[in-house]
Amino acid sequence: MNAALAHAALPTARAVRWAPAVLLAAVLVAATLLARSAGRPADVVLAIAAAGLAATVVSGLHDPAAAMLSAVPVSLMQRRVLRLGLLGVPALAVWFLLDSLATARLSGPGPLLALTACGVAVALWAPPRRAVVLGASTPVALFALHRFLPTGAASEVVGWWLTEP
C-alpha cells in the first residue's frame, strides 16, 4: 500500500456513510436471534444477510468527492479497493457473527463474497452515473430472483451464489 493510500484511509472512513450498515447489521442480528429463539433454521435470514451486506459493501463505492480526488496520486481503482476494504471487513465480521448465531450454518462467507463480487462487477461495468445504484441492487435482485422464480433451471442458475459460490 503506498503512502498516499494509507493517508487516505482515515478521511475515507470518515466520509463513508456508516449508519445504513450499522442499522442493517442490528436488524440482521435481531432477526437471527429471533429465528434461533423460535427454534427455526435461519437459512433464509442468512441469505437475506448475504444480499443486504453485499449491497451495503457495493454501495460504499459511491464517492461524492471523486471529481475532486482525481488530482491526487492515488488511482481511482486504489480508492475503490480502499472503500471496499473499509466496508468489507466489518461486513465479514457481521457475517461470521450471524453464522455463529444461526442454527443452520452456510459453508463460510462464500455467498456474501459471491454477491459482493457480482455487485462490484456490475458497478464497474455500468455507466458511471448509475454504476453504484445498479451494482448495489444486483445482490438484492439475485436474491429476489432466486426466491421468486419457479423451481427449475432458471432458479437454480440464479441461486448458484448460495450453493456454489
Q: Please, could you describe this protein's structure?
A:
This protein has helices spanning 3-15, 19-37, 43-59, 66-69, 76-101, 110-125, 131-148, 153-158, 160-163. The longest helix is centred in the middle third of the chain and has 26 residues, at 76-101. It contains nine helices and no strands. The chain starts with a helix and ends with a helix. It has 165 residues and is an all-alpha fold.
Concise overview:
The chain has helices at residues 3-15, 19-37, 43-59, 66-69, 76-101, 110-125, 131-148, 153-158, 160-163.
The counted number of beta strands is 0
Rg over CA atoms, rounded to whole Å, is 17 Å
Largest sheet: none
What sequence of helices (H) and strands (E) makes up the elements? Answer: HHHHHHHHH
General form? globular
Derived structural class: mainly alpha
Task: Output the number of helix runs.
Answer: 9
**In percent terms, what proportion of residues is strand?**
under 5%
End-to-end Cα distance, whole Å, is: 28 Å
Low-pLDDT runs: none
Q: Kindly report the average pLDDT value.
A: 84
Share of helix, binned: over 70%
What's the layout of helices and strands?
Elements: H1 3-15, H2 19-37, H3 43-59, H4 66-69, H5 76-101, H6 110-125, H7 131-148, H8 153-158, H9 160-163
Helix pairs in contact: 1-5, 2-3, 2-5, 3-5, 3-6, 3-7, 6-7
List the main descriptive attributes of the protein structure presented here:
globular; 165 residues; mainly alpha; single chain
